[in-house]
Amino acid sequence: MIRTPLRPLARVIDARAKGENPDAIERENLRLRHEEMRDRDRNRAEGRLLVLGAMFFCAFTVIGFRMGAMAGSEPAEPISSVGGASIQAERADIVDRNGRILATNIETHALYAHPQQMVDPLRAAEKLSAIFPELDGDRLLRDLTGKRKFLWIKKQLSPEQQQAVMDIGEPGLLLGPRELRLYPNGRIAAHILGGASFGNEGVHSAEVIGTAGVERQFDSQLRDPAKIDHPLELSLDLRVQAATERVLYGGMKLMNAKGAAAVLMDAKTGEIIAMSSLPDFDPNNRPAPPTEGHPDDSPLFNRAAQGLYELGSTFKIFTAAQALDLGLVAPTTMIDIRGPIAFGRFRIRDFHYYGKELSVEKIIVKSSNIGTARLVQMIGIDRQKAFLADLGLTTVSGLELPEAAQAQPLLPAKWSELSSMTISYGHGMSASPLHLAAAYATIANDGIKVTPTLLKRDPSVALPQEEVMSTIAARRARAMLRKVVTEGTASFGEVEGYAVAGKTGTADKPKPTGGYYDDKVIATFASMFPAHDPKYVLIVSLDEPVETSGPQPRRTAGWTAVPVAAEMIRRVAPLLGLRPQIEPAKLADITLTSSN
Hints:
- About 35% of the residues lie in helices and about 20% in strands.
- It has helices at about 10-15, 25-70, 120-130, 135-145, 160-170, 190-195, 215, 220-225, 240-255, 315-325, 360-365, 370-380, 380-390, 415-425, 435-445, 470-485, 560-575; strands spanning about 95, 100-115, 150-155, 175-180, 195-200, 205-210, 230-235, 260-265, 270-280, 335, 340-345, 345-350, 355-360, 500-510, 515-530, 535-545.
- The radius of gyration is 41 Å and the shape is elongated.
């Protein structure tokens, strides 16, 4: 910047020549300079005030619009951005097919302590021991009076306990909010739901993670923040599940059984309507896994989906259905049942003497081991293995449970002719009741394979149509199963108005050390109803049942599992919307004798 001198030489000389005072020139120039500086500073200040005013105007305009938008919106909880709030504590609900709550969350609190901030730790320890009798009072006192700076005391508090802790008035006792998984129906569907526990924990929140069942299978979906408002819909019907468990428990006690399992499945879609395993547990207070003993001694063991058993004569219908499907026999074809069939030191015998021959239909009705073995000799080993694989009896069931993924059927190391014969009547391979339910559903579904699921299916989505056997073979097999109830070993399974069809199976229970028990069995009844148009498949299995109403103990499925299944159908069929109906009868044969 070029500045004008305060005493220009030319003006000073001119002023002296005129006799004027040169100092006046300096004072005038100084005044002009100050006025120029003042005007420049004033313009700069006015510009800054204008910009600041514009900024304040814009800021208040934005705030006003934001306040208006918030006033017109739904209230929502603020989300903290602190590092400790990164734990995802929320979890979606689980509901049955009708929207009834099976699992949800409730708000609770955890109790923790800062011992260094406590005023009277001795009094606090005494009060806490009185509120929580399960705590070790001596250890609690040592922890509160020691050098620890942080101490978890209780991870879950009831409202009453919370109030009692607050009444202590100790500043070193603090409460942390958290979500708790609640199963409002208690033990109902315990093995399906599984249970949940705390994962990552902080004083202000805790992560709820699935530990078993569908809680574990769908853990990521249930914890997905985008799906918190979308409950997981299961195929279960809570009413039917409760009725199934009640009847099964009564039957297990009445038949003096060690354990029991039941599977009720939609015969068309494979949806599990009810599935129960006894003994069970309360998922609100899930017991610890066993560290010794046999796995099925624990109430955590899911006998329906996880247990692998030789299911006995329930397998005979598969052999007959395959023989019918291959065109090797008809229901009336006579089969030689003279025996026993000898294989080295092994003998295949029938439970009773049925004569020299039986029709294929009578082999199923009378439950002839020899007759079934003769049929599988006609079928052959390779075709038998392929057919059982098509039914899903040689692989895991695919049900959406971690426990079901562990249930790989036990097959013979070498599938010999003897293995083929024993498997034909349900010995020599082990599968779960769930496997059996899916295989029977395939027969009920006119030979189209049925895959079990615990998820509610969308009726608008078409199911895959994989044909395992012909419709004619499946319907002939169902007719045989109906006669098992009306004329054969499952006569106690008849439920008036519902036309039950099914097959009994009584298998000797294997010893852990090898061989079989003489007085312990697995009794199973595999059924479908109504027989003329099956809607549902029901499997009931009892572990070591003994019926003692007669002079001799009876263990066969016809005396144990069948009555339990019949009572179950009687209870749940109305809940399923099935009305009792008169079974359609065959039209009488009419012979034209004369045209007059």
